[in-house]
Design goal:
heterodimer, A: 585 residues, alpha+beta, Bactericidal permeability-increasing protein, domain 1, 7-stranded antiparallel β-sheet, 22 helices, B: 479 residues, Porin, 19-stranded mixed beta barrel, 19 strands, 18% helix, 39% strand, membrane (chain B), mitochondrion outer membrane (chain B), transmembrane (chain B), transmembrane beta strand (chain B)
């Protein structure tokens, strides 16, 4: 196999340099220039030289009709050179003044008078040495990655060569810029060009793909929305989610598009000024829109992410989604039970946020206490975020310990009660209204916003996966401990029993927890679907009253059923009878 | 056009007796305003109000493609009762005039603002005209203090006034704030701040300490942007500044009893006579900047000669500034050719790059109605006739019947009165500029009913096919 690179015909073409110069000139002048450059940048000379680069094939990993992967070594020490000409502003005060708002300008008289100097920069003796990984596929275009810093040396000569300081500065700056250009910009440009060449249909589609991907891929990151659904609105299996999370590891970065990061940055910096700007970030539900519930969180979040680097934004997003941790937890448990390996996968997603969780959880505890004094009307919604995140909190602790032998569990339970108490307190408080809103709005909110992926309000989730049961059995530990009066007394004994014997799956507790889970799903959904407006007082009171009634009724029915047919309960219930609370009305 | 808030701020300076022109960066203010006047762009409406003597508001709505606007509020601790804020009474010269007369160094309290409003050359304005222009001639507190015969600086309350100003530009969410605080008669501190998202650190703050001793004015500044430190100074000599009574804060005995302008100027005449026809004042100054964070700096030196208001000939101002670091030499020359016409030229030359620039500017005042001004022929051509109303009158019917001439008309009133009346009659001003790139700027500003209009356009004479670079209309109403 041989490759034939034509270097000289490239240069032999008379019109080539002309075109290349024009292209470069327009490319250089396209972006807004810094104020120090007062004229257009012209490429006056361009020569690729006569010495071709040396190319060495180190490895070919994949070779087919439509794809190629290989590693090359490239060396170049030719006589190519490039000359740029422009005019620069030599008075630093002038550039300083021109970039500032006039109101706070010191308004110098003539100290800022301009002095423009023509500048000519020649880049020559370019030495490159790089290991290039080249991946080509017809679908994804051409991707080039430099494994090392390709630029070995470069000679920058300019009009100011006689001034040592300026020369050094230019040399340094241009080398740095060029490195950035080659390492970051060039692969992107090549990729884009290749896409246009081979698969022009991919270019506009990229957004859609990214959307789909993020729909599916955000979920595994310990931050799945509770109603994890695919594009068609079908609910995703938790196992599926966890499998997604497996390969999501290194690519998490791609989940947060650069554009969104920039917007988040703009949003964060907007808090520091009086800017009213609220950038429109794709695929994100703003807390302000999600209802009053999250206001405390929303105020806390910017403080924790003042500066949106990649990592912090990632954490921030974990934070944002914490209320949905339960289901990811569920998936984590689901897979962690049978094998340790998948457990690891589940925790990778979680462990990233867990350190943060503990902190946030502590803060939230405070907030829960504060909120308790508020009216019941605002509480049902306002506590969900904190509660469920706490639930996630305690869960994450629990989940990390799950693989250990069973006897350990009681100790873990002993360790968490503080968390549990706080969580359960708030939980109990919001649960009845949750139920109320759930049932009351089940019909109304059957068609939530188009923007929000929705779960049809059916029994699907509850029978989605049997492993979930295991999770649910754990939950009672916090559920029954709640001192709230709304919890029906009938429910207590079974849940206690479930706590004592972790394995014994008392149906009531399953039921209750499945219900809780589902309630959270729906609550979530409504939170998104409702987009802000708080139900007015009267309806809330009505709902609450109705809810307590329904809750009692449900608990009673569950208890009866369980008493009647304890053995048959699980199967029959899971496959045939949807939980009463989710019966479509 | 000076913005309403600028006008109010100037009124504040006037009320507190601060001479805002006695600093280095106002050295060539006259030619700068005559040549570099801002052209309005797009459509802009301003509603302003001096709601109480202490409080002013201004709302602005503009449209240059996109609609934007601003809301601004201003609070002054000194009552601004002596100015006319209604747009049908506001003296246009105070708002629009570019040629800046020198302010008397010796009575910083009352005089300069009136002079600013007075467009007349040579002759001192009568106190009545000044009063007519500006309402009360001087602020009650200041005048009271002066008329009592006591030194104005005996009353500390006058000099510890402050001004607060804030402005929010809406779609941009750019917030401007300014505090001006007077500490003593000679010391004033200004803090300006801008908050905007796109700026580094979300905004900048500029602090200015101004010290004005009449004979010299010093200014120190610090900007948080780049940690810029600056120092400016201006020193006056010659003319009134070098006279024995030049110490601004020890008024001559004659002044104590009578504080009006006439007296001052009479004094000035007397001194000028003694000084053997030195009717001008020299000022020299310099500025120095150093950015502590970006390690860059700049400086310039400047000198100015300007005729005093007492000068009987053509008032003129000439400046020369040099930037030795950048090799820039800048010379300007401005004169008030007629009371309705000012001219200015400017030449820039750089000794390092041999780049040079020139620009000329002028302003023409018109006392005719704006519509006629706009629809008529070129204003500069037929401006000459009828500075006064036609004096020839038809013989009256009665006289004709009796076969005799009319009774001789009473002599026209003494000079000042018709002139001041004419001041009031000024309806608009045309400003024009031209530079070496053959770019022209035209701006007409004037009053129609109780609205103040400003219509401007930029013209590029190089591209005569599509000469209009910009077009703008500004309408201002204040109450």
């Amino acid at each position: 196999m041989a490759f034939n690179f034509n270097w000289s015909p490239l240069t032999a073409d008379a019109g080539f340099y002309e075109r290349a110069r024009d292209l470069l000139t327009t490319a250089l002048n396209k972006s807004p220039k810094p104020p120090i450059i007062v004229d257009d940048i012209f490429v006056t000379e361009l020569n690729l030289g006569s010495v071709p680069p040396d190319l060495e094939i180190l490895e070919i990993g994949d070779l087919a009709e439509d794809r190629f992967r290989g590693i090359f070594k490239m060396c170049y020490s030719g006589d190519a050179f490039l000359t740029l000409a422009t005019r620069v502003q030599a008075n630093p005060l002038n550039t300083y003044i021109s970039a500032k708002p006039s109101f706070t300008s010191p308004e110098p008289l003539t100290a800022s008078s301009s002095l423009t100097i023509p500048l000519q920069i020649t880049l020559s003796e370019i030495k490159l040495s790089a290991f290039i990984i080249l991946v080509f596929s017809k679908q994804k275009g051409l991707t080039i990655v430099f494994r090392n810093d390709p630029l070995e040396s470069l000679k920058v000569s300019s009009t100011f060569d006689s001034i040592q300081f300026v020369r050094d500065y230019l040399q340094k700056t241009i080398e740095m810029k060029l490195r950035d250009l080659i390492m970051d910009e060039l692969p992107a440009i090549i990729h884009r060009l290749s896409l246009q060449l081979w698969c022009p249909d991919q270019v506009p589609k990229e957004d859609e793909e990214a959307k789909e991907e993020s729909d599916a891929a955000i979920n595994p990151l310990a931050t799945p929305p509770l109603d994890a659904v695919d594009a068609h609105g079908h609910r995703l299996d938790p196992a599926e989610i966890s499998s997604l999370s497996l390969d999501g590891g290194p690519e998490t970065q791609s989940l947060f598009s650069q554009k969104n990061l920039e917007k988040m940055d703009a949003l964060a910096s907007a808090h520091r000024t009086s800017s009213l700007l609220t950038p429109n970030i794709l695929e994100v539900v703003f807390r302000a829109w999600a209802g009053q519930s999250d206001k405390p969180d929303a105020t806390a979040t910017p403080a924790s992410t003042p500066n949106l680097h990649w990592t912090s934004s990632y954490q921030g997003s974990v934070h944002t989604y914490t209320f949905s941790d339960n289901s990811s937890q569920a998936s984590g448990h689901a897979s962690s039970r049978p094998t340790l390996v998948s457990m690891g996968s589940a925790t990778t997603g979680l462990s990233l946020g867990s350190g943060r969780h503990s902190k946030a959880g502590r803060k939230k505890k405070m907030r829960v206490v504060n909120l308790r004094s508020k009216t019941a009307a605002s509480e049902p919604v306002s506590e969900i975020g904190s509660t469920s995140s706490q639930a996630g909190d305690s869960h994450s602790e629990a989940s990390t310990r799950t693989p250990m032998s069973e006897p350990v569990i009681p100790t873990t339970i002993r360790e968490v009660p503080e968390n549990d108490l706080a969580a359960s307190q708030s939980k109990v408080r919001f649960r009845p209204p949750t139920d109320a809103t759930t049932s009351a709005r089940a019909s109304e909110s059957s068609g939530p916003r188009a923007a929000v992926p929705s779960v049809p309000v059916t029994a699907q989730p509850s029978r989605a996966a049997s492993p979930q049961e295991h999770v649910y059995t754990r939950q009672p530990s916090m559920f029954p401990s709640s001192p709230a009066p709304q919890t029906s007394a009938q429910e207590m004994p079974p849940s206690y029993s479930s706590r004592v014997s972790q394995k014994a799956e008392s149906t009531a507790s399953i039921y209750a927890d499945a219900k809780g889970q589902q309630q959270q799903f729906q609550q979530q959904q409504q939170q998104w679907g409702r987009a802000g407006p708080q139900p007015d007082m009267s309806s809330v009171i009505l709902e609450q009253a109705w809810i307590t009634k329904i809750a009692g009724e449900i608990a009673r029915r569950v208890y009866d059923e369980k008493n009647r047919n304890p053995a048959f309960w699980e199967d029959s219930h899971q496959h045939d009878i949807p939980p009463p609370a989710y019966e479509p009305r | 056009m000076r913005e309403f808030m600028n006008y109010i701020t100037n009124a504040f300076y006037g009320a507190t007796g601060w001479n805002e022109d006695n600093k280095y960066n106002e050295l060539n203010a006259t030619s700068r305003e005559l040549i570099d006047f801002p052209l309005s762009r797009g459509l802009r409406l301003t509603l302003s109000s001096l709601a109480t003597p202490h409080f002013a508001t201004s709302y602005q709505l503009g449209s240059v493609g996109v609609v934007d606007g601003s809301i601004s509020y201003l609070h002054s601790s000194i009552p601004l009762t002596h100015i006319a804020a209604q747009s049908d009474k506001i003296p246009l010269p105070a708002l629009l005039r570019c040629y800046r007369r020198l302010h008397d160094l010796r009575s910083p309290g009352q005089q300069h603002y009136i002079l600013d409003a007075d467009p007349l050359s040579g002759l001192p304005p009568s106190p009545q005209s000044a009063r007519a222009l500006l309402g009360a001639a001087s602020d009650a507190a200041v005048a009271g203090g002066a008329l009592d015969g006591g030194d104005t600086d005996q009353d500390p309350g006058i000099h510890t006034h402050s001004l607060l100003y804030g402005r929010l530009y809406l779609p941009k969410s750019l917030l401007e704030g300014m505090i001006i605080k007077r500490f003593t008669q000679a010391l004033q501190v200004q803090v300006r701040a801008v908050s905007e998202q796109s700026l580094r650190n979300g905004g900048t703050i500029l602090g200015l300490v101004q010290y004005d001793k009449g004979k010299y004015g010093l200014e120190g500044l610090y900007s948080t942007d780049g940690g810029l430190l600056g120092f400016r100074g201006l020193y006056n000599f010659g003319g009134d500044a070098s006279s024995s009574t030049c110490d601004p804060w020890t008024p001559t005995p004659g002044e104590n009893s009578n504080n009006n302008n006439n007296n001052n100027n009479n004094n000035g005449h007397a001194q000028a006579g003694e000084k053997e026809r030195i009717y001008g004042r020299f000022s020299v100054g310099g500025e120095l900047y150093y950015g502590t964070l970006n390690k860059s700096g700049g400086m310039s030196l400047g000198a100015r000669f300007a005729t005093l208001p007492a000068h009987r000939g053509t008032p003129l101002t000439a400046t020369l500034t040099i930037n030795p670091l950048m090799g820039n030499i800048n010379a300007t020359y401005a004169l008030l050719a007629r009371e309705y016409c000012s001219l200015a030229t400017r030449v820039d030359f750089n000794v390092y790059s041999y780049e040079s620039e020139w620009a000329v500017g002028m302003e023409l005042w018109s006392n005719r109605r704006p519509a006629g001004f706009l629809l008529g022929a070129s204003p500069s051509n037929d401006f000459e006739p009828e500075p006064y109303p036609p004096k020839k009158k038809e013989r009256s019917f009665q006289a004709k019947m009796e076969w005799r001439l009319d009774d001789p008309e009473p002599e026209p009133e003494p000079e000042p009165t018709p002139k001041t009346r004419k001041n009031d009659e000024y309806k608009g001003v045309l400003k024009a500029r031209l530079d070496n790139n053959l770019r022209m700027g035209l701006l007409w500003e004037g009053r129609a009913k109780s609205l103040i209009f400003s219509i401007g356009t930029g013209i590029d004479l190089h591209k005569l096919g599509e000469p209009f670079r910009s077009l703008g209309l500004e309408v201002q109403y204040s109450s």
